[in-house]
């Protein structure tokens, strides 16, 4: 059994009786150097072991060698902490967590923010652009930082993204004797803080009339929300597809024939913890999907595979909750997608050619669902007047897998 003890910046003084007894009675004490230095004097009989590097690769061997142990972690060990990794490796039955008050809770207390009114974003060991999907007018963010350089980096990122008027408050050593804070406009925040730091952000747009089209979860963003070469599902049709794909928290999408990734990226922006696997045959477009995902703060949530949808083996991919087929469409691709879905999984496919329509009609005959022809016209100048110009019509198949489907 691994007992994970949450430790605040106040060290031993902040531990309650139960956590003190665990530390004092430990035969093996595992932790980072700072935590071991804080608590080792109170565990005189313990063997002191530091976390391996790289962490996840070295943990299995370390845990086999130590057996039962007490592990030290910051604050709430399940808030972007070591306990999450330990539970993933060992299972919840082999790990007991004894949390302290987390730094995010202390920060909200200092700000006077309720838990319901603020979103916690971790940038520890990650690209700071992970905050970008959460930026919206009046949003409140608590951003967990890697080090004392992150607050200024975050301020610069907010300024570059049109949110420089936000209030950025850096708070360090929360709950400890060296606690401190500094609050400034994001676009004016400069210099380094202490390393044990997080940032509280009250989000404000520089120009409320020019808020980024990526703000908020609603799909159907303008085509220029990503870099592209013209090969993408247009916004009105994309909004229709996302409405039928129904992204939900933690759900995974296959985007087959992904083009420049517009559907997969909007899927990931629509709900928390969503992820996507994109298959795109053109290597340049595949790299553009990766670049677009990074620019939107979604790099860790979008996997890109270079391959043709008609020949790529789909079985190694994470199981989908929904599949979108936007390119390279034939009956075999649709059938393999259908068979990969669980009960309740959604399949949405688009066609603009007669051959593609035939594949959709044939699949509809086997699976049922809804066939829709989506036509969009936009008003464009015609001399001194406006005239309607139609876009290419798209045939859409949308179907949810029921119980007993073959």
TrEMBL record:
A biological process term (GO) from this entry: methylation
InterPro entries: 4pyrrol_Mease (IPR000878), 4pyrrol_Methylase_sf (IPR035996), 4pyrrole_Mease_sub1 (IPR014777), CbiE (IPR012818), Cbl_synth_CobL (IPR006365), Cbl_synth_MTase_CbiT (IPR014008), Cobalamin_biosynth_MTase (IPR050714), SAM-dependent_MTases_sf (IPR029063)
Xref: SUPFAM superfamilies: S-adenosyl-L-methionine-dependent methyltransferases, Tetrapyrrole methylase
Record keyword Membrane present: no
Pathway: Cofactor biosynthesis; adenosylcobalamin biosynthesis
Keyword check for Methyltransferase: yes
Residue span, Tetrapyrrole methylase domain: 4-165
MF (Gene Ontology): protein methyltransferase activity
CDD domains: AdoMet_MTases, Precorrin-6Y-MT
Domain of life: Bacteria
Pfam families assigned: TP_methylase
Entry keyword set: Cobalamin biosynthesis, Methyltransferase, S-adenosyl-L-methionine, Transferase
Protein name, UniProt field: Precorrin-6y C5,15-methyltransferase (Decarboxylating) subunit CbiE
């Amino acid at each position: 059994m691994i007992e994970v003890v949450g430790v605040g910046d106040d060290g031993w003084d902040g531990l309650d009786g139960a956590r003190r007894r665990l530390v004092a009675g430990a035969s093996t004490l595992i932790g980072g150097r700072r935590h071991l230095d804080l608590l080792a004097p109170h565990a005189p009989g313990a063997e002191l072991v530091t976390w391996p590097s790289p962490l996840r690769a070295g943990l299995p061997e370390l845990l086999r060698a130590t057996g039962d142990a007490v592990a030290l972690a910051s604050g709430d060990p399940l808030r972007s902490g070591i306990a999450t990794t330990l539970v993933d490796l060992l299972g919840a039955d082999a790990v007991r967590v004894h949390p302290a008050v987390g730094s995010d809770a202390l920060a909200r207390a200092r700000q006077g923010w309720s838990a319901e009114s603020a979103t916690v974003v971790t940038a520890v060991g990650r690209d700071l652009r992970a905050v970008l999907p959460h930026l919206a007018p009046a949003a409140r963010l608590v951003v967990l930082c890697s080090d004392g350089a992150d607050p200024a980096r975050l301020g610069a990122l907010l300024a570059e993204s049109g949110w420089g008027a936000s209030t950025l408050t850096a708070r360090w050593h929360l709950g400890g004797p060296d606690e401190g804070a500094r609050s400034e406009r994001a676009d004016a925040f400069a210099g380094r803080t202490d390393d044990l730091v997080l940032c509280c952000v009250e989000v404000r747009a520089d120009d409320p009339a020019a808020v980024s089209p990526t703000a908020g979860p609603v799909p159907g963003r303008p085509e220029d929300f990503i870099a592209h070469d013209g090969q993408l599902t247009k916004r009105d049709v994309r909004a229709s597809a996302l409405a039928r794909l129904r992204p939900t928290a933690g759900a995974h999408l296959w985007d087959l024939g992904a083009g420049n990734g517009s559907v997969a990226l909007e899927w990931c922006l629509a709900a928390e913890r969503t992820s996507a696997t994109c298959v795109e045959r053109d290597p340049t477009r595949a790299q553009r999907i990766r670049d677009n995902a990074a620019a939107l703060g979604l790099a860790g949530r979008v996997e890109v595979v270079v391959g043709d949808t008609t020949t790529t083996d789909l079985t190694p991919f994470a199981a989908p909750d929904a599949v979108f087929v936007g390119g390279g469409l034939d009956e075999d691709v649709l059938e393999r997608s259908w068979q990969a879905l669980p009960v309740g999984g959604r399949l949405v496919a688009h066609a603009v050619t007669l051959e593609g329509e035939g594949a959709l009609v044939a699949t509809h005959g086997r699976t049922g669902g809804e066939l829709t022809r989506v036509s969009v016209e936009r008003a464009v100048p015609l001399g001194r007047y406006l005239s309607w110009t139609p876009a290419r019509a798209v045939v859409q198949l949308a179907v949810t897998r029921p119980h007993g489907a073959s």
